[in-house]
Automatic annotation (TrEMBL):
Chain ranges of the PPM-type phosphatase domain: 35-337
Reported cofactor(s): Mg(2+); Mn(2+)
Name of the protein this chain belongs to: protein-serine/threonine phosphatase
Protein species of origin: Protea cynaroides
Protein's UniProt keywords contain Magnesium: yes
Alphabetic keyword roster: Hydrolase, Magnesium, Manganese, Metal-binding, Protein phosphatase
Highest taxon listed in the record's lineage: Eukaryota
Enzyme nomenclature, EC number: 3.1.3.16
InterPro entries: PP2C, PP2C_BS, PPM-type-like_dom_sf, PPM-type_phosphatase-like_dom
């Protein structure tokens, strides 16, 4: 019931587009522990990043879902993960690592059913997947769970005597075989496959195909039956599997929030390809709150432009699809932590509950398809 209106359309005025027609942002909204800000820039023909923030007097949920192979898996997670979390948390009397794992498992299982139903008409849906980054604040406890290489970073006050006033602390694990530790983990799980991780097209890839080792979806890398089916061979080369080479087992971290914890940055890897954890944290710490997520996105785009000896103004003119050659879809959510160790439910009168989602496709906001962008308030 709390989340059912996450799917009703919203008025255009809640999110804004600036001079970059593929950049959408929402400056500041309240959550139980402070304020939050969202920004998204589209590079792919269809936006493959999806994101949402659920707020209530008692909890804040954050989701960033970076799709690959198409937008279907990230959109599916956007519609199903939070309701599963709410239902399992209600059944078990609160949030826990077990509740989060069950919600991830249920979302993966339901997406598998969708793939099986869609298979005869659209066999390529077996190759669609998504990274999944989830964060929650409940009773001054922070939960972070992820699959893939979207990342959560904490900005906290530095101890006295440090050169910088703020410290960046990474809270999630990058499940990407570019990381040597992850490569070794994958190789250890497949001792009988000397080609489980292959260096190709400038990066390490599992079976020469995919960089992330954990995801929702990517069923052709998890279920041998999809690879064996002649339908699949019509659009992709078969990948002989003895066992799944990608999993949906999330890494989960839980920590008590402390007064020196200042803010959280949740972002897809499009941001982290351009900015270090430290650079992103310093931008948030040194700038005004209003439009802070947009500022991070623009900083990343300026870095992407610099690498090509271009200006951001030049990149802004490049249309979706082609723009993917210059940068990835980028999603950023900044969560400020102002009210830790204090009652803040007074900020939510009448027990209001909000569910804020970024647009399903930013480019479509040029048309009358504003129903793709959704914010809902329940009183």
């Amino acid at each position: 019931m709390m989340l059912r209106s996450c799917y009703r359309p919203l008025e255009r005025c809640f999110g804004r587009r600036g001079s970059d027609g593929l950049l959408w942002h929402m400056d500041l909204k309240p959550h139980a522990s402070g304020d939050f800000s969202i920004a998204v820039v589209q590079a792919n023909s269809s936006l493959e990043d999806q994101s949402q923030v659920f707020t209530s007097p008692f909890a804040t949920y954050v989701g960033v879902y970076d799709g690959h192979g198409g937008p279907e898996a990230s959109r599916f997670i956007n519609n199903h993960l939070f309701p599963h979390l709410h239902n399992f948390a209600t059944e078990q009397g609160g949030l826990s690592a077990d509740v989060i794992k069950k919600a991830f498992d249920a979302t993966e299982e339901e997406f598998l059913h969708l793939v099986k139903r869609s298979w005869p008409a659209r066999p390529q849906i077996a190759s669609v997947g998504s990274c999944c980054l989830f964060g929650a604040i409940s009773n001054d406890v922070l939960y972070v769970a992820n699959l893939g290489d979207s990342r959560a970073v904490l900005g906290r006050k530095a101890s006295e005597g440090r050169r910088t006033p703020v410290v960046a602390e990474r809270l999630s694990t990058d499940h990407n075989v570019a990381v040597e530790e992850v490569r070794k983990e994958v190789e250890a799980l497949h001792p009988d496959d000397s080609h489980i991780v292959v260096y190709t097209r400038g990066v390490w890839r599992i079976k020469g195909i995919i960089q992330v080792s954990r995801s929702i979806g990517d069923m052709y890398l998890k279920k041998p039956e999809f690879n064996r089916d002649p339908l699949f061979h019509q659009f992709g080369s078969p990948v002989p599997l003895k066992r799944p080479v990608v999993t949906a087992e999330p890494s989960i971290q839980i920590r008590k929030l402390k007064p020196h914890d200042l803010f959280l940055i949740f972002a897809s890897d499009g941001l982290w390809e351009q900015l270090s954890d430290e650079a992103a944290v310093e931008i948030v710490f040194n700038n005004p709150r209003a439009g802070i997520a947009k500022r991070l996105v623009r900083a990343a785009l300026q870095e992407a432009a610099k690498k090509r000896e271009m200006r951001y103004d030049d990149i802004k003119k490049i249309e979706k699809g082609i723009r993917r050659h210059f940068h990835d879809d980028i999603t950023v959510i900044v969560i400020y932590l102002d009210h830790i160790q204090g009652s803040s439910s007074g900020r939510f009168k009448n027990s209001a509950v909000d569910c804020t989602s970024a647009p399903v496709d930013i480019f479509s906001l040029n048309t009358d398809e504003a129903e793709d962008e959704r914010i809902h308030t329940i009183s």
